[in-house]
Every structure is written in C-alpha cells, then in structure tokens.
Amino acid sequence: MSSHDHPGARRQTVAEWLLTAAPFTWLFILFVIPTALVFAIAFKPSDPWGGVGAGWTLETVRSLRNPNYPAIIWRTLWISAVTTVSCIALALPCGYYIARAPYRWRRLLVLLTVIPFWTSFLIRIFAWKVLLHPDGYVKRALVFLRLADADAILLYHAGTVLLVMIYTLLPFAILPIYAAAERFDFRLVEAARDLGASRWRAFRQIFLPGIRRGLLTAVLMVLIPSLGMYIIPDIVGGTRSEMIGNKIAQRTFVDRNLPHASALSASLTLAVMAPMLWVLYMQGRRRGETRP
Amino acid sequence: MKRSRIPLYTTWAVLIFFYLPIGVLILHSFNASRFSSSWEGFSWRWYIRLFAERDIWFALQNTVIVALSSTIVSMVLGSIAAYALHRYHTRLQRVHYTLIYTPLVVPDILMGISLLLFFVGIGMQLGLITIFLAHTSFCVSYVAMVVLARLQDFDDSILEAARDLGATWWTTTWRVLLPLLAPGIAAGGLLAFTLSIDDFVITFFVTGPGATTLPIQIYSMIKHGSPPLINALSTLLLVVTFLIVWLVQHLTQEEHRHEVD
Questions:
Q1: Same domain, yes or no, for B74 and B113?
Q2: Strands (E), B174-230
Q3: How far is B180 from chain A (nearest CA, A)?
C-alpha cells in the first residue's frame, strides 16, 4: 500500500487490525499457546495424581530413551512412508485419468472421490473390520482361492493397519493431484510425444513437473496424518502394530502421565514439521506464481 | 495417439476399493442375521433396535449442539479471516496466513493433546464447552481456506463500482460482498459441520463426563457393542453424508458452468 503518513493509509491499517483481531486472537489462544504448552510440559515432572508437578526437570525427556520406543518410532516412520508412496502411486494415474475425462464423466468421478473424503473416518475403518473379520467375505474368498489357510488372521497386523490407512487417506492424495492436473496443459505432453519422447518420459519429464504443487500438497496431506495416526492402529491393529499416536494416547488415558505424553507429542511435532518445512521451502522457490 | 490404459484401470480399481467396504456395510445393515457370515433375509430390525437406544439419541443431540455452534462461530471468524487475507498483503497477513494454515496440517492427536493440556492448565471443566472450543479452532481454518479460494475468483471492481455509485461501506458489505460470497461461506460451513460431526480424536481428548458425542459413542460400540447396530447407524450417517456432498456440489457448481459455455 501507499506511505504511512497518508490518513487514508492509516485508516486502512486500523481496518486491517480490526478485521484480523478476532480470528487471530482465537487461534493464538487456542492453537499457539496450547502447542507451546506441549513443549513446556515436556520439561515438567509428573505428580502421582495424574497432574503436572512443580519445578522443571529433564527426567521426562530422558525417559524417552525407553527401549520400546525405537521400534515404535521406526514402525511409525515406515508405515507412514509406505502409505504415502502407495497413495501417490495410485493417485497419480487416477488424477490424470479424471482430469482427461470428458466433462460429464469428470464431474461424476470427482463426486465419487469426494464422497469417501466426507464420510466418517470411524465408519470407514469399521467397514474393514467387518470385511476382514474371521468369518468375513475377504477371508472366505481367500480360503476359497487357496490363498490363505482356514486359520489365518487378517486383522491386527501392521499389514492391516497399512491397508486401512491407504484406504482412508487415498482421497486426500487424489484430490490435490486431480486439481493440479486439471489446470495442466496436456498439449505439452502431446508436443513431447510428437518430438519423439516415450510415453513414460513425457509423463515423468513434462507431466510430473507440471503438477508439482499438487503433488507436494498430496504428499503432505497423506504423510502428516499418517505420522500422527492413532485411531486405525487402535481399531484394526494389535499390540505389535502400535504407532507413536497410540503411545501418546496410552500415556494420557491409561497411565495419566501428562508430561510423558507431552514429551512424546513434542517429538512428534518436530517430526511433522520437518516435511512441512521442506514443502514450504520447495514452494518458496517458486513463489511469485502464488499468493502468501 | 495411443494413450496408456493404466490410468483407466487404476481409477476403476480404486473406485471399487473405495466402495466395496461401504457397500458390504450397507448391505449388512439390512441382514436379519446377527453375524456377517450369513445372509438370513432382508430386515429392518437393526434400525428398529437403533431407535430404541437412548445413548445414541443423547450422543446425537450433543453432536448436533456442538456442530451447529462451532459451525456458526467458525463461519463468522473464517470469513473475516479470509477477507483480511484477500484484502491486505502486509507482513501481519503473512503471519495471519501461517496461523490459519498450520492447524490444517497438524495431526489430530497433537491438537487433541495440546488442547487437553491447555484446558487442564487453566482449570477448565472438560465437557461440551471444551469440545465446542476445540472444534471451532480447527473449523476456522477450513472455512477460511474455502472462502479464500472463492475470493480469488472474485472481481473486486464490483465493490469499487458500488462505492463509486455512493454505497456506504456497510451497504457494500451487506448488499454486495456477502451475497456474492454466500455460496463459498455456505460450502465452508457445510465442511465445518461435517468435520465437527465426524471428529473423534480431538473430541476424545477434550471430552468430559457426560459429554458423549456420536463418534465417541460409535467408538465405544466398535470396541464393546453389537456390530449390526453400528452397520445401521453407519448407513444412516452415510445417507446424511451423501446429502451434504450433493448440496456442496450444488453450491460450488457455478464455476464449472462457466467452463462448459
């Protein structure tokens, strides 16, 4: 805007502050302060009544060196990574296909992708519990096809957790990739093919860079909820497929050790911030095309 | 030029993957048998049983109270935030944007635990009020993003024209800006409403005695209850979801219509 001495400019600034005040204050009190509190309480002792003790200590942070944790952290990382890669691998052809479909088809396909996105998370997880139940259809089909033994258990594995995570998070990958592909100029791919590029090469060197922003959003939308996943391992997983989220919930509700839960949450926050900062950096390099 | 068939096959496979579990669930809600392994004929019995469950009605009532109040508050706060972000391009707005954007990418469990610590820290009684505060906090960001997307296609010269014709700030806002933004605000509100109705993880952390919402009730039914009842309840919720999605599509259709012409 123009210079600050201008009375109109000053009125503008006042108007801006008035508009920004309410949402800003709300999120500052109910988002910034609570997040800061997680980091602060990680350095507090716990008291026997399930509260937070007085004074400061490094004891809680040190207790994270519990021998069980490396396995859980490793499992959280690999499950999240495999979920993200699988979702992107499936979402790329889907987003591409939907974007190139004729208008009427496209609208129907988008609608069909959006419905699971809006459907209750718990219900979609529960549906798999029914399907994979020892007497369920999937089991019987697998036994019939002699792909599984009659006493095989399909639930409560890391594999089950992985399957259900891909199922619930896949729409979050398809939608941003589709949105980017819809804006992509497919004549570029045709031009590359005319100039002799193979299908695969045109896809990799023309299409993928063209939808980079959508691709980055898709990675974030899948990776971040995966890292903090709690409810899927809780319902379809067993004790040997627990993730960091489950540990945070246990420390909070079962042991009622809030400082310990905070220390775990603080490490998870840091783990989540790493991919986010990477994406912000990648997007920052292309700033100018986009706003803020 | 010949196109690869991989995208076609993948898309259809993914759609079957999406709808198969939901389809089986809906089918079984009409199964007379208690067990999902056998089909004993069509029946409404689980729906009738469902209507007799008092806990579910109580939970539904709580869910609607929380969802309506947090939707209304987040619609107001989110639209104001989106307007400020669209109108001004200052350093304050860059901070503001980060503040609005970050809650969208924070995992639910972190939001839940941080709000729990906050409410415990200030000595607030856990219950419907804390659930309302928590839901509003994440809904504001979603509403703001939807409205902001809508504002980006907005032609600002309409507002200037209104002002040039002598309309006051108040008239311009109420008679020009808001009616034009209404579909975007409504779509954001519907998104907020569904997110609030559906939220389990954050609610689980900040809920208190007696403040059971529908997802919390469904969770305890999944853990201890009878599967056919959950099937019936899920089917009813799916119907509500389909209606909401259809409404949202209807509200956001305008942009597409331009495209066809």
A1: yes
A2: none
A3: 19
pLDDT tens sequence across B71-98: 999 999 999 999 999 988 888 888 999 8
Residue A7 is assigned to a structural domain of this protein: no
Yes or no, beta carbons of B107 and A228 under 8 Å apart: yes
Q: What pLDDT band is residue A266 in, cutting at 50, 70 and 90?
A: very high
Residue B106: CATH number of its domain: 1.10.3720.10
Cβ(A136)–Cβ(B37) below 8 Å: yes
In a domain, B48, yes or no: no
Instruction: Domain count for chain A, please give it.
Output: 1
* Domain boundaries, position B252: 53-260
Q: Please give the residue range of the domain that contains residue A122.
A: 41-284
pLDDT tens-digit readout, B200-234 = 999 999 998 888 999 999 999 888 877 788 889 98
Q: Cβ B85–A124 below 8 Å, yes or no? A: no
Percentage of chain B modeled with pLDDT above 70: 94
DSSP secondary structure, B20-84, as one string: HHHHHHHHHHTBSSSSTT----B--HHHHHHHH-HHHHHHHHHHHHHHHHHHHHHHHHHHHHHHH
Residue of A24, A121, A122 with shortest CB distance to B96: A24
Q: Are residues B31 and B95 in the same domain?
A: no
C-beta atoms of A228 and B85 within 8 A = no
CATH number at residue A265: 1.10.3720.10
Contact B110 A272 (CB under 8 A): yes
Residues 6+ apart with CB under 8 A from A34: B111, B114, B115, B117, B118
Please tell me the distance from the alpha carbon of residue A48 to that of residue A55, in angstroms, as a whole number: 15
Tell me, yes or no, if A43 comes closer than 8 A to chain B by beta carbon.
no
Q: Token digits for A146?
A: 């002699």
Mean pLDDT comparison of A52-61, A273-282, B59-68, highest-scoring range:
B59-68
Taking contacts as CB-CB distances below 8 angstroms, the residues of chain B near A211 are: none
C-beta separation of A72 from A80 below 8 A: no
pLDDT of residue A34: 96
Q: Nearest-CA neighbor of A278 among A220, A198, A214, A201? A: A220
